[in-house]
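An instance as discussed:

___
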Amino acid sequence: MPIDVEAEVLWNRRLSPDYNVLALAAPAIATDVEPGQFVMVKAADGQDPLLRRPFSVFEILRGEHGQQATGFTILSKRVGAGTARLYAAAPGQVLSCLGPLGRPFTPVDPPHAAWLVAGGVGLAPFATLAERLRANGCEVTLFYGARRAQDLFAVDLFEQMGVRLVLATEDGSRGVGGRISEPLADALGRRPPDAPVMLYACGPEPMLVAVSQLAAAYGRPSQLAMERVMGCGMGGCFSCVVRVRAEGGTRYVRSCVDGPVFRGEDVVWE
């Protein structure tokens, strides 16, 4: 069950003029969270902004012996009033935090390989997932795309976990020039049919569409973390609906409770 805690800001690492990683002391949430789940964070006291903002849990923070979870981080992009406050948050500040929420990824085991496909801040749920997959003994590859080299973050974090990296930038400033779906398509075309692989993806919806279409074309399963606007995170406001296949047709489900992770083959793109 999700819990609501007052989480102290431990540190705030600004990665660029728009992106930051915020560390929150919330051991009760950090202990229970699964890869792909999210939290709802209130950026300030009072009613400005009124609503909480959803964030995937990025990293789990642990004590000095690496065993006990002490908190977690979120990866945020400054796009509005709420995220601007989080960008400016100072150590010692206290933020209301509700979580963990949503359905997580389902990690695979060997002999499956795991291919993680991230666009922009869609990188956020993959640090915890990569950690879990590597602990399972899986071969893990991160396909990570952004507009430019300056928008590729935490690459060293994944390298330290033994994750193979495939990078792409739309302006060609780092890695492959173009969208990340292009090297993914090439890799899928070269993967032997009898070598099992699970695709995991999180990022802008056009990227998720491309990943799900490629997975279907090559007969590979996929799990997609959907980025939807969430007003409450608890299923009450119906602001985050996703259309999925169901017996006899299709239906709309709430991303915050039935997701945010969906099987790619179940999603119906509008």
About this structure: The CA atoms of residues 109 and 136 lie 6 Å apart. The chain has two domains: 3-101, 113-227.
